[in-house]
Amino acid sequence: MRLASFLPLVLATCAIAVPSPRSHHVVHERRAAEPLEWIQARRLEPHRILPMRFGLTQQNMHRLEEILMEVSHPESLKYGQHYTAAEVVDLFAPSAESIATVTGWLTESGISRDRLRLSSNKGWIHLNVTTAEAEELLQTEYHVYTHPSGNEQIGCHSYSVPAHVREHIDLIKPTVHFNHRPTANVLQRRSGPNLGAPSIFNGPKKANKAVTITPSLENCDKFITPDCLRALYSIKYKPVATKKNSYGIVEFTPQSFLEKDLDLFFGNFSPSQVGARPIPVLIDGAVVQTTEQDFDVNGESDLDLEYAMSLTNPQPITLLQTGDLVEGAGFDNWLDAVDGSFCTFEGGDDPDQDGIYPDNLPGGFQGPESCGIVAPPHTVSVSYLQDESTVTPAFANRQCSEYAKLGLMGTTVFHSSGDDGVAGNGGVCLDAQHQPVAKNGTVFNPGFPASCPFVTAVGATQVNPGSTVNDPEGACEQVIFSGGGFSNIFPLPSFQADAVKSFLKNHPPPFTNGEFNNTGKVRAFPDISANGANYVIGIDGAFNLVFGTSASSPVVGSIFTLVNDARLAIGKRPVGFLNPLIYNPLFKSAFNDITSGGNKGCGTPGFTATTGWDPVTGVGTPNLSKLLVLALVLPALPLVIIMRFSFPLLAILVGIASAAPSKRSPLFIHEKRAAEPVDWELSHRLDANKVLPMRFGLAQQNIHRVEELLMAVAHPESPTFGKHYTPAEVVDLFAPSDETISSVTKWLIDAGFSRDRLRFSANKGWISMDATTAEVEELLDTEYHVYTHPSGDEQFGCHNYSLPAHIRNHIDLIRPTVQFNHRPSPLAVRKRGGGLGMPSARTGPKKSDKLVTITPTLENCDENITLDCLRALYAVNYTPVATAKNSYGIGMMLQSFPPYKILMNFSPSLVGVRPANVLIDGAVVQTTQQSFDFNGESDLDLEYAMGLTAPQPITLLQTGDIVEGAGFDNWLDAVDGSFCTFEGGDDPTQDGIYPDTAKGGFKGPESCGIVAPPFVVSVSYGQDEASVTAAFANRQCTEYAKLGMLGTTVLYSSGDDGVAGGGGVCLNAKHQPVNRGGTVFNPGFPVTCPFVTAVGATQVNPGSTVNDPEGACEQVIFSGGGFSNIFPMPSYQAAAVTNFLTAHKPPFSATVFNSTGKVRGFPDLSANGANYVIGIDGAFSLVFGTSASSPVVGSLITLVNDARLAAGKGPVGFINPSIYSSTFAPAFNDITSGGNQGCGTAGFTATTGWDPVTGVGTPNLTKLLPLFLALP
Asked: Known InterPro entries for this protein (predicted)?
């Protein structure tokens, strides 16, 4: 009667409940590096007004390099056919869907529509908000940071956006970026967010000696003058098309030139230019200030203008003077002025990066932001940069794409590469966590924007002491060292691939991958060089010597301004984006190779200049006379012009003109190996003729909505709870688009694979193709190797692989590629060399070493767990009545149960009862080998699942044959066909591939969709999250979400090694698994997937009874738990995890585990995992593990489903939103004692509420039943 009166009340409450408007937020950006010498002082005032800028995702960005190469590659027939500004805007404008989605999110969050402003190119939404509004909107906290100088800045450590919004936003400002703008001026600067622009360490370096002018080419090793440069670089051309041409020099206020300095210099080195001045374009209230006059504020501008103007005379020079005296400026400000790329109606820049105008501070510029006020010059030189480690990848990529757009419009952008060798500005290097440190950093620190592949990075050379202009130069090693190295953000561009690979192969640097990114798959710099030592400049009324790539950049800019002049004079267009040209073999002769010197830094000699491209001087220094001849022929010239050249020159030109355009598309790294395998050694290249069963996982539609769709049928407050989808509906929802299928198919056919070699899965999610190793290596720009293990086993794989830019968005992952084996192989039967990436051999129950005497009494449950103990612990008083409608599956791999003595002591009615076997991919319930290792898991799972749910039939999902084995994907194939292709869609590096051609292997077809998904599936296996790539983890995780949409609850055991991985393996500082000495926690997988229910372990504490509170398991095993390094925090878990981290802050540093509070935590709930009595190999034994906990919880959910099915309702499906709901809190026994030690620590501690040891606690079935019955 009490139950009957209770149900209507709960049902009514659920029926009128409105789904929470709060969307699931995921972390979008984190601060790239903690700022040196800055201290977090206090929370930012909640009423402070922040000018927020939302950078919308732009269309066609995946094709950006492809489109740019069409107009920039010297072998392209479209070379020089640059785009107009309007065409660029149209190409990359965000989609209407992106604009509507972001606008909708903001308005739904309480921001009125009239507060939003959209940029003219629709790329940015601008909104002024209070700190409080921003913190609520982005689920973050803003703080004020203080510096010993007294300066203050604001920022947040990370921020989040709703899952469905994430793909529509590149970045939001101001958020995570920290100040790197120069603050050399003593004028008042606003005490707020001035973050992330050119470093204070930029600019030329001054010699500490008096200069006596000796204008002779014999002295160019001591004094560089314009004549020295003309001699070094064969500058003999006089401009004739100056009205058509343009050359811009960027300076940041308060840097400014002095007219008297220009005239002093011109008077000595270019008399006709005395009185000449640059054409100033004053950006955002800039002034060419003369109040302060010293080297620090005049040196850079004087140097740039004196040499740019004299080398290109009479070409007018445009001075892009940027920023007012109060606010200053960043790189985006000058980009705004020339193309409006970052502008909104009221300014699209970032207070964390750029100057914001109008500037309301006293003395600040009150006019509007300078947006598109001048056409982009054909050439721009910028002698400033910052460390790449100071910007986030999102910010770096967004700005880098703007340089590419300038290239599309015909502009060449030069950036100096830095003056501190392999170190960052001021000699700052990185620590092992890639954080900048003032001292003792050993990791190289590349510069930005020099590392952006769409700028031309300029290094520095020198006339070696005692040498002349007729001798080869060397890398600059006087006062400064040429900046160079390898990016940690940008992939290797196609135009540079051959040069970089040649350097790494023929001149391998003597440094580890811990010191620089030596994968051979990332952008390297500089691209080119010019002299950077002993420049004579007029400065503050006198002459001085200066050094730096600050000099090299405007010199190279001057040379290519002259190239543009020659092209414009004959009716051609400017060269635009330069890099494909300078790396092309046809242009090799136009550069002087630099083969001596280095760029020391970070306590090392740095890299060494050598034959060909190197990360010290790039391809070398330019020879203008040779460049002109080659550049003038692009694209093919009319014959009448060609005939004016001499015959030898004609031969060169005709050779170039007739060269066929390259078919090679730009490639980008798509996936890298997640972790180097422990105990495996690279042995040799894989046989080129070996046939690989390739599987191309196509990008699925609506994946960004998978959690939203799942929550609609799984959240207890949703009116559509339990209205699960059919398999056909799920397939239709997520099937790849026609564009994706056609794009990938065309790519494969264009690469030489005939159409009849391709096979498609039934749901179109996979393309299958057999190909030789040689074919795959060519297709994916990679190398396959064979790895050997001390056991004698062999496996194969590649370290990373690449795809064309226009294909990347259409492919999730490709197999077999970067995954490495984590499959168990306990059988003595030989397994074929290759199978990679399965459940860990270290999973499974742990056996007690003591003799078991059966004492079937509830008083002894602390020593012997039986079915009755569990019934008492978890109030299991329900007997199933709807077994014909219900289903419960146990996933099993390689293990098997012997067909005797099951449950005869504890459930006599089940003697002789067996599970319903579903034999997946040739599986057998083998009885040849009978031991704990082969029978323990299966016996445990079945004995307790069958005993607790009797008379419910249990489905045994026995997976994999004895030879090939199996992985998680194999059982997923069997129940929903999600990973199937017509001939198998699994991964030899992850799963069993069938038919199995190995001796004794299963010859039948792959088991694809052979059984309907059970309503509950328990899997007592796992692997370390560090062993899988993010792409693989996410792809498989979405399949669990789809099962949830179909109405299936999937439970996985959380692991038995506490915060460590399988077998107690932890990670090092680089998140690589190590056998010993690892201190970083190592979470498991698939338990970190937010769409499975992770089950931890408890125990009846020694001396306690079933009536006492349990504790976390600390006997033989420790409950696996922690925080993911891949998956963001799901919305249903946010409050619980945040409460734990706030109220029970773990005593570990951020380097030990992911403590951001923005990632998935596990387990979700727990059940007993200690002292289980099982019948094993004809006797009784005690076992321990979350391997026991998972099928016990699965049994309870199966009983819940039975009650619902009996009442005419559907199964509960995905249960996580329910168990975290406050409504369900009384149905769980909170566990508040014990921990999960590992990695040399005590691990986390079980405490009040959710914790990463036992989750929300253990279930009480009697209380769960009415709550679930009350749901629709």
From this structure: Peptidase_S8/S53_dom_sf, S53_propep, Sedolisin_dom, Tripeptidyl-peptidase_I
Active-site choice (300, 332, 419, 1164): 300
Could you tell me the CATH superfamily of domain 205-633?
A: Peptidase S8/S53 domain (3.40.50.200)
* pLDDT tops 70 at residue 12: no
Instruction: Please check whether the two domains, 205-633 and 863-1056+1065-1270, share a CATH topology.
Output: yes
Burial status of residue 114 (CB atoms within 10 A of its CB: 0-12, 13-18, 19 or more): exposed
Which residue among 199, 482, 550, 896 is the active-site one?
550
Q: By CB neighbour count within 10 A (0-12 exposed, 13-18 middle, 19+ buried), where does 77 fall?
A: exposed
1231 annotated ligand binder: yes
300 is an active site residue: yes
* DSSP calls for 1152-1180: TS--SS-EEEE-SEEEE-SSEEEEETTEE
Domain boundaries, the chain: 25-58+93-173, 205-633, 667-700+735-815, 863-1056+1065-1270
Distance CA 301, CA 292 (A): 13
Calpha distance 1057→1055 (Å, rounded) = 6
**1249 assigned ligand-binding residue:** yes
593 is in an annotated binding site: yes
Q: Cα Rg for the chain, rounded, in angstroms?
A: 34
Catalytic residue check, 1187: yes
Question: Is 937 a known active-site residue?
Answer: yes
Q: Is 922 marked as binding a ligand?
A: no
The answer to whether 612 is a known ligand-binding residue is yes
pLDDT grade, residue 34 (50/70/90)?
Answer: confident
- Considering the domain 863-1056+1065-1270, what is its CATH architecture? 3-Layer(aba) Sandwich (3.40)
Which neighbouring-strand residues pair with 543?
538
Band of pLDDT at residue 646, cut at 50, 70 and 90: very low
Annotated catalytic residue: which of 98, 840, 1187, 1195?
1187
550 in catalytic set: yes
From the candidates 671, 921, 941, 964, give the one annotated as an active-site residue. Answer: 941
